[in-house]
Structures are given as C-alpha cells and as structure tokens.
Amino acid sequence: MLALPLVFLDLSPDRISVQENRTLANPPSFSDIKSNPGKFIHDFNEWFKDSIGFRDKLLAIYKAINENKHLNNAVRYTDGQYVYLVGEKGHHYFAHADGWMISKFQGEKFISDEKLSWLARSLNEVKVYLENKGIPFVVMFCPDKESVYPEYYPKSIKRGPEPIQLDLITNYLQENSDVDIFSIRQALVAEKDTYLTYNTSSGDLTHYNQIGAFFAYRELMKHINVYFPDIIPYKTDDIKISYDEFGIPDVTLKSGFTYIRLDSSFFDNVNVNKEFAWGNHAYENMNSNLPVILFFCDSNAEEQLIGKYFAQQFGKAIFIHYRNASKIQEYINLFKPDIVVFESAERELEGFIENVVWIIR
User: Are residues 12 and 147 in the same domain?
Assistant: First the structure.
C-alpha cells in the first residue's frame, strides 16, 4: 500500500489541479544538484508531493473527511493555526500549534535543567534587587486545563506520571532559589469538584474561566497577605456567579467595583513592547492610599480574570507583559510599586524563561 503511490508517480509536465486551482510543480532541474543543491532539494520535494500516485483520489478522501464534521471532530479540530482535542464528557482541550502540548501531558520534559538553573539564578537576582528597594517579590505559575482536569483528556493519549512537569519545575525552583514561587494547580484541583474552573467546550479554552480566576486570585493573595496583612481577600460569599446559555460563568463582586481602567496612553511615555493589545493595562482605584502592585504577566492576569480583583484592592494595579521584563529597573523607578508579581502560564514557561533570565545586569 505504501509503495503503490510511488510506483504510479505522475511524470507528465504542465499539470493543473482543479481541486486546488493551481499549477502543480514541474520536475526539478538535475543541473542544480551540483550548482544549487538547496534549490534542487526544495524543487524535488515540491514536485514529489505534487506527483505522488493517486493524488487526486487521496485529496478527495481528505476533503470528504474534513467535510464530515462528526468524523473529523470526534478526536481533534483546528481553529486557525491552533489544534484542539475532543476529550471525555464533552471536554475540549487546547493543544497549541501542531499539538505540542500533548507530549507535555504525556510527561515529556519541556524545560531543560540548564534553563531551570538559569531561571533560578535570575529570579534570585531580581529578588535581591527588589529587596534592596524594600519591595516584596512573588512568582506564580498557572496550570493548563489538562493539569487540573486530566481525567477528561482523550483516553487514547496516555497520561504522564505524577508529579507532572509543572510540579517538578515549581519544586526545583523552590529548592534552588530564595524566591516565593508557587503554582496554583493544587488550589484549583481542590475546588474542581464543587466549581467548574475551566470551560468545558465553549468560550475560552486556553485559560481558567472566571471561577478559576477567582481561586487563582485567592491563592496569590495568600502570598501577598504576608506583606500586606491589612488587605482582606475576598471570599466566595463576596462574589456573584452567573452563567450564559453555553454554561460559561461570569463572576462579579457583590459590592461592585471602585476602580477605573486607565487609557492606553498611560504607557505612551514608557519603553514597553505593545505587540499585544491586551499585553499591557493599568488601573487606578478611587482610594489612592492603597499600595501599588506591578505584574509582569501573560493573559492569565487580564481584567476579566484576576486583574479586576487586584485593581479593586490596590491603589494602582499595573500589568505589563513579561516580554518586557528586561526593562524592570525602568518600571520600578517610574511606577514605584510596593510589590512585584511575576506570572506565567504552564504552556508559556519556555517564553517566560527566555525573557526573564539575565534581566538584572
């Protein structure tokens, strides 16, 4: 079966694919083997893919599978460049581009020991720098859905062992640095039998939902309260949870909110990367006597997630994407925060490390 398409290679020139509405690649020039081997390899590859035997029939089968939503979506589907998996009891899981997060679920190491060593050393340097200015420093990691709800992941994919890689990474950093580093995974696991902390199949599948965000906020506040015991964390009695027609929760404070979101011009005179519209945001409370908190974070700290709670309990709450971490000294001098928090999603740890190491020079 594998050999037959090779035997029936289409060697005819100037072919056109009606299905794809394009001219198919012609055979490569053999003179390029010596003069331009790179071009020959590229041209050969394109011609070979376009000339394989039974190509039209294989394309027709592929098209039929794609058009059969029940068959195609029984295991996985794509949204733009991203892959999603269909798990048990209707749960869907974000698998990122090319599904690389599957191997992470299977227990494959995705952060090297060398990078973890760099990160531990760099975070220690940040801590020393901030300590010298009297500023507390906290680091929080947010798990991906499959790390909290592994039981609904597709059964055909074998789960990796406990402790998972996120736990091993967190434990390593706790043992090899003096920084207050923690993961909120266990805090969300503890609540999942009572509350759905990640959406099942609709809405945002890449973050915890607003209920999960509340428990993420509460776990972070346990660490912040060590330095600011007068700030009283909200309890579940303080929030109201409602659901839309798809079962997606919305969480609001019963007491209402007393902060405003500052205009994006707040960052106009700041050396900050504005690659993401959501990447940098700031809030001001009506009570200006409250302390100032500065986050270096990803989208887990957006306003509709944990951002609104910190905006409510701090005089200023400033959120800057961690890609700007190298400019931390500029931001400290400008914003004069009373506490600094680093936050990263589990799947973003690679990028987080690349932007955090060596930021204190």
Answer: no
Q: Are residues 266 and 195 in the same domain?
A: yes
**Residues linked to residue 282 through DSSP beta bridges, in sequence order:** 318
pTM metric for this prediction:
0.80
> If you search the block for the tokens 């925060």, which residue do you land on?
337
Buried residues in 107-141 as b, exposed as e (16+ CB within 10 A): beebbeeebbebbbebbbbbbebbeeeebbbbbbb
Position 134, amino acid: G
The parent domain of residue 231 ranges over 113-356
* β partners of residue 322: none
Query: Does one domain contain both 90 and 230?
Result: no
- How many Cα atoms within 13 Å fall on the side-chain side of residue 221? 21
The count of residues in the chain is 361
Query: Where would I find the H helices in the chain?
Result: 4-7, 32-35, 37-51, 55-67, 69-72, 101-105, 113-131, 145-148, 165-175, 185-191, 210-224, 308-313, 328-335, 349-356
Do both 100 and 119 map to the same domain? no
| Per-10-residue mean pLDDT, the chain, length 361 | 79 76 85 89 86 79 64 71 92 94 97 96 96 98 98 95 97 98 98 97 96 98 98 97 94 96 91 75 95 97 97 98 94 97 98 86 53
Q: And the tokens for 336?
A: 């004069």
Query: Hey, is 151 helix, strand or coil?
Result: helix
Instruction: List the structure tokens of 60.
Output: 């027709």
Is residue 299 within 8 A of residue 207, CB to CB? The reply is yes
CB 240 within 8 A of CB 250: no
